[in-house]
Design goal:
By secondary structure, the protein is an alpha+beta fold. The chain contains seven helices and twelve strands. Helix 1 packs antiparallel against helix 2, helix 1 packs across helix 4 and helix 1 runs antiparallel to helix 7.
Length: 329
């Protein structure tokens, strides 16, 4: 091969390598942007759906509490008020009204009627206030009495040996009598079992969504969602997908209700987590997807560009070699 042919080969090789490298960088940048937009958007949508579910429960609960507030004249009227509105939100496990000690003299220190679901779709009445369950010492009762505002309680486990036992979160609101004195603290209980099923239903809806799946770009778009408390405890998650959060930066983001992205290993799989707050409650929703699925288009495109570059270099080498032979004739 003559020297000019060598120069031509080197120049063309350089052009091919630079072009392939630039194409790979541009594609990688575009794919990262597309993936980020896709999953951040997905996280926002699922978070908004959960927020609407929770706000819907708040609205229904306030209607029940308002009814109780209109009937503070007798224990029987309170119970009737609780029972009259239970059909508003069949997914709520139960409604209660925990009264100030001796508010109704005939009921003594503890009067807490609880209208709740049994194992069927029917509601039943239980009187849960007692020395064993002294609600006046509970954090949610103190907080409601002090703040005079409604709020969602911290998650807790309630056990009394009956079918009421379970993991709960409660929407709490204090009620005041005509003199402005605290009459009772009302609550609407939701179980984490129900919230888990609701989150999985939302996940399935968007996992099979036509627009989301229109441009897969070789990806499986495999993901799942979970909900984490502000202290990093995993509250709502698919089976065997409980992820304790310990990263200081991420915990700070969650406490300050900021969005973010982090890579971590989940059940032995390198994964990417997209997280952000759920409006109206101190929880964070995360969308988790395997990194190998996220990076698949970039990896395949990189291999394809490398193959094209190698083939191009080989073709140019063959042409330059023939040019060298032709120069000898």
């Amino acid at each position: 091969m003559k020297r000019p042919s060598v120069y031509v080969l080197l120049v063309v090789m350089a052009v091919i390598i630079v072009t392939a490298g630039a194409s790979f960088w541009a594609f990688s940048y575009a794919m990262n942007a597309e993936t980020n937009v896709r999953y951040v958007g997905l996280q926002n949508i699922i978070s908004e759906k959960m927020s609407k579910t929770i706000k819907g429960m708040e609205t229904n609960a306030k209607n029940v509490f308002d009814e109780v507030g209109k009937h503070l004249d007798s224990p029987e009227a309170v119970i009737a008020a609780l029972q009259s509105k239970t059909s508003l939100a069949p997914d709520v496990r139960g409604y209660f009204a925990a009264f100030e000690p001796e508010y109704f003299k005939e009921k003594g220190k503890w009067f807490e009627p609880y209208v709740h679901h049994t194992d069927t779709s029917e509601f039943e009445l239980s009187m849960v206030g007692s020395a064993r369950h002294d609600y006046t010492t509970s954090n949610w009762y103190f907080r409601a009495k002090k703040s005079k505002e409604s709020f969602w309680s911290d998650p807790y486990y309630y056990y009394d040996g009956t079918n009421i036992s379970g993991h709960y979160c409660t929407f709490v609101e204090p009620l005041f009598d005509s003199h402005g004195e605290l009459a009772c603290v009302c609550g609407a209980d939701i179980t984490f079992d129900w919230l888990t099923k609701e989150l999985q239903r939302i996940d399935e809806q968007y996992r099979n969504h036509e627009l989301l799946n229109k441009f897969r770009l070789m990806r499986d778009l495999d993901f799942f969602s979970l909900v984490v408390d502000k202290d990093g405890s995993c509250l709502i998650h698919p089976d065997n997908k409980k992820i304790p959060i310990k990263d200081p930066g991420m915990l700070q983001d969650m406490q300050q209700k900021r969005c973010g992205t982090i890579d971590m290993t989940v059940d032995g799989v390198s994964s990417r987590l997209y997280y952000g707050p759920i409006e109206g409650i101190d929880w964070t929703l995360m969308v988790v997807t395997p990194k190998h699925d996220v990076q698949k288009p970039t990896l395949v495109t990189g291999i394809l560009l490398m193959a094209i570059a190698v083939i191009g270099i080989i073709v140019v080498w063959i042409i330059c070699r023939r040019m060298g032979y032709a120069g000898k004739i």
